[in-house]
Structures are given as C-alpha cells and as structure tokens.
Amino acid sequence: MSSTKKHFPGAKEGSDNKENILNNIRKYDSAFPINLSSRVLYEDNHIIAINKLPSDIVQGDKTGDTPLSDFVKQYLKEKYNKPGEVFVGTVHRIDRPVSGIVIFAKTSKALARLNLMFQNKEIQKTYWAIVKNKPLKTSGTLVHYLKKNEIKNTSKAFEKETPGALRSELDFELICSSKSFYLLEIRPHTGRHHQIRVQLSKMCCPIKGDVKYGFDRGNKDASIHLHARKVEFMHPVKKEMLVIVAAPPEELLWNEFLKIIASSPKPLVL
Length: 270
Fold this sequence. Notes:
Pseudouridine synthase, 5 helices
C-alpha cells in the first residue's frame, strides 16, 4: 500500500475527544484488508480478479459491513494514485461464507460484456467442496428444481418440477478423501441461489460447516468449506482465453487435501 494519508470518519479537526478518534482508527484499520494485493489473481486494464476470503461480502448488504467491491476501489485508487472516484463494477457474487475467485470490471465496457457472458453461460466456473459423506457415485450430474424462501434466505431442492422452482444442474466428481471427509469438484451449469450447497445436501453430502443445509456444526470462523477454485472464459476485450485459479484458504483441512493431491501418484486436478 502507498503512504496516502488515511481519513478516519468522525475525527474532526481540533477535536479533543481522543477516544472517539482512536475508536474510528481501530475500525478503519480492522476493516481495510492491507493484504489485498496478495489476493489479486489477475489484473489488466479491463478486469481484476480477487481471491475472496470467507469473511468478505462482495457487495453491501443489511449488515453494513464494508464490501469487497469498496476495498478493490480503494486498492486501485492507491495503487495508481487516482484522483476522484474509481470505477469498479461487480460482475457476479458468491455467498459470504464461501471463498475463492470474484471478478470485477474496471471499465463500463468490460462490465457490460461480462454481464452478457454470464447471462449466456460463456463463463465456466469450477468449485471445490469438502463434504461429510461419500457420494454414492464417484461422478455424476445432479438436476433439481430449487425454490427460494425469501424470508429464511434458503432454497429447497425438489426432484420434480414444482411451481415457483427453477431447474438447477451441476456436475460433480470425487477427487480424493481424508479419514473423515471427501473433496468434490463441482461444475455448475446454472447459477441458482445457494445451488451447490442445497444440491449437495440433497444427495446427503452436506458441505463442512454449512449448518443451514445439514452439516451438524458450524466452522469457528463462520465459513463453509466451499471454494470457487477456477474460472475459464474469453477475455471480453482482448478475446484471449483466460484461466484463473485460486488457492483455497490457509486452513488445516484445506491444507490436508492439498497435500493429498500433491502426493498422489497420478495428477488429480489443478
């Protein structure tokens, strides 16, 4: 980060209320992710991809917590010493307890084109999920009809077409296992609310930490073991194929699975 002077909300010039000033400083410092530069996976003049932490929210919500989009704006403003407002367009979102790749547009042209690409399903996303139970098959396709409960902020999966429910499809593959858990690779074909979480739960494979969808206890940091691992798409301006890969969080179980993959006699996955 540059040495740009920080401005702390509520710290009025000449104020002798030192405690209020210090409280605002603490709030600012705890919120601003000083390591954001280490989480930049890809950047050019048009887009920037960030490896999201499970604690990040992509866009502002009712919690009032500072969203990742604002942190990206501040990062770009300081990195390039930009005066005035910095444009950052949110292309897509992943749930707060989920980690991994989030793409932001740095220009309105890139934002419009990426939005269209998502609508046309021209961006392939791959997730990793650590689940409690072994799937009955090592690979397969799940098709359900998901209905969202707006009040509870949950979705329910139905086997057959149901009024108000949307068709949802994903492919899964068992990558490897530890003593107690299983690592799945997921490729969603639709982008429904909580889709991966509810569909894996429906096949009796709840994601570790996801008490909302059937896991028996939450993770201490309120995360779930679902990670947006890879995105593949044609660059919206350069027209070159991009493949962006994000390492999972630095955490005991994720690290255990990375070691299992690395020690495998045959290559497993990226």
